[in-house]
Specification:
heterodimer, A: mainly beta, 4-stranded antiparallel β-sheet, B: mainly beta, 47% strand
């Protein structure tokens, strides 16, 4: 799987949008972008994934650039409970149940 | 619906002692994973099961680690003997079987092991 690059840490004020970038410049055409997050003392939690188009669900929005070399996870109104490590993962399409390959992620701190 | 259950949540042992971790996946999930997470790092796969068959155990240190999933449901991960470097969080995850690339993996809370 292609590797990803994320900032080590970010801060965000409570109630503001949190924009978490991810670079995946070597991504292949058949690879999805996944986002997971890990709150302290919990296991990772799925957030969202996408291939080419922007995606939105009840948790977040995912913006993928046209060349697919980078993406941004957007938490529209961050709360203190969104403080966590966020992982951007690239995964081959139709890979079935292959394991996730995690990097170090971005530690997001939401500040009151 | 219950999520992935792991026990114990915390375990402290002395080096050279054995230790075992237990995982109960989400009902109906045929695929089960064990991941290792060192402090400040992302999780790394140790072993993956499809039903009761270990289909990917290339990262499992077989000299001291073993795992089983006898009836294709619950799984146990064992370390014998434990070493200081085994101190970490051991995560269990499960997912539905199938070829869909969008199969979501659901993680348990993990077992935090401290080896003294």
């Amino acid at each position: 799987d292609a590797k990803t690059t994320q900032p080590t840490s970010m801060d965000c004020a409570e109630g503001r949008a949190a924009n978490l970038p991810c670079n995946h410049s070597t991504i292949s055409g058949n690879e999805y972008v996944y986002w997971y997050r890990q709150i302290h003392s919990q296991g990772p939690q799925y957030i969202i994934h996408g291939l080419k188009n922007n995606e939105t669900n009840e948790m977040a929005s995912l913006i993928i650039t046209e060349d697919r070399k980078s993406s941004t996870l957007i938490l529209p109104h961050a709360t203190l409970r969104d403080t966590a490590v966020y992982y951007c993962i690239v995964r081959v399409a139709n890979s079935g149940n292959t394991p996730l390959v995690f990097g170090k992620g971005t530690r997001l701190s939401v500040i009151a | 619906e219950a999520g992935v259950v792991q026990s114990p949540r915390y375990k402290i042992i002395e080096k050279k002692q054995p230790v075992a971790f237990w995982c109960n996946p989400i009902s109906g999930h045929n695929t089960l994973y064990w991941y290792l997470q060192n402090l400040g790092q992302g999780p790394e796969l140790l072993i993956r099961y499809e039903n009761e068959e270990a289909v990917d155990d290339s990262q499992l240190p077989k000299d001291r680690f073993s795992a089983e999933r006898l009836k294709g449901v619950d799984s146990t991960l064992k370390i014998q003997p434990a070493e200081l470097g085994d101190s970490a969080v051991y995560l269990c995850a499960s997912s539905l079987s199938g070829a869909a690339s969008t199969d979501t993996q659901y993680f348990g809370p993990g077992t935090r092991l401290t080896v003294l």
